[in-house]
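If you are new to this repository, start here. Below is one unmodified record pulled from the training split, so you can see the exact layout before writing a loader.
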Amino acid sequence: MTTHPSIEQHPDLAEMRSRFERATTTPRAQAIETLALLTGLYLAASPWIAGFNGLTTLAVCNLITGAAYVLCMGGFGSAYERTHAMAWCAIAIGAWTIISPWVVVGNVDTTRTIVNNIIVGVVALLLGLAMAAMDVRAPARLRARTGSRGDAGIAPMR
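And here is the target side for that same chain:
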């Protein structure tokens, strides 16, 4: 009877985890995550900061949306390989933030709410796109030395 090692011990999996770890330790990734957390916190608090907390439906919408954005973008530093796909959720949250003053029930589309949500929504959308587009492969100079695949000489699995 033969026993096979678990998938956790596969060398390709270990290499993939190290690539994800390298991607999240770059200053760019850390800056994106920090800005995203600040954006989400501002979005959650924006009704009280910008002064439209009297518009209850949009205030609650921004509070929930900001908290969801923080949760989506907050896990990248510690668990990038499991949370990378959530960047697409953050992009959707950014798009929702932009259109929410016109979609939320009630007459909440004032100049203050529109300007606030468009600016915060665009920032959230761009940060989500930046995180989704993060290159987890080897840097360009390493790809040039090892070939176009960027696999640093790792043989394909047979």
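Two things worth knowing about this chain: Helices lie at 11-24, 27-50, 56-74, 76-83, 86-103, 111-132, 140-146. The CA atoms of residues 57 and 106 lie 7 Å apart.
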